[in-house]
Amino acid sequence: MEYNGERLYSGLHLMYLGQLVIVIGLFGALLLLFIPGMFLMSLVGAMASLVGAVMSIVGQFKLRNEHQDYMTSLMLMVIGFPLNLLSNKTTGMMSLVLDVAVMVCSLAQLYFLIRANDSFFAQKGREDMIEKGKQVFLIQVLCTVGAIVLGGAAEIFWENLGTMIVLLALMSIMTIAAAIFVILYLKKSAITLR
What we know:
This protein is mostly helical. 89% of the residues lie in helices and 0% in strands.
């Protein structure tokens, strides 16, 4: 199957930039939340994350006609977005169920993105990039399972503020670490498939 290298680069690069903006925005929002008087700046970070999410969706949209798995990945991304918003508006068990649904959508979205990329990497004989995709997916799965376990533990220890904060901080670190691996994979994929 022939592919349009510039279109692949454009879509993957925009996804890379979008994911980078999301992580920087969320990291900034989390840090500023703990500094007195910086609540408004924290909202700016959250808005930057929303802009990054839109950039990622647009990047994925650009890829949709290049391979069926890109379209599947896009659909999962679109489904995950409102689920994520909904999970932030609920509490208790419903919030936990929605969070898990968001994580499953996110993993499936990444799986189909990597699978589509792999088909083009195979054409170029880039087994190293196929292996990198497998590693990134495994790291994402491990971090997702870890985040679910830590999130569940935080629910159990909600009365002990110190323990809950430590658990949520560890969960955030795992999530950001996994996101960094995806960001680096997207950047390298965009360059390789150009």
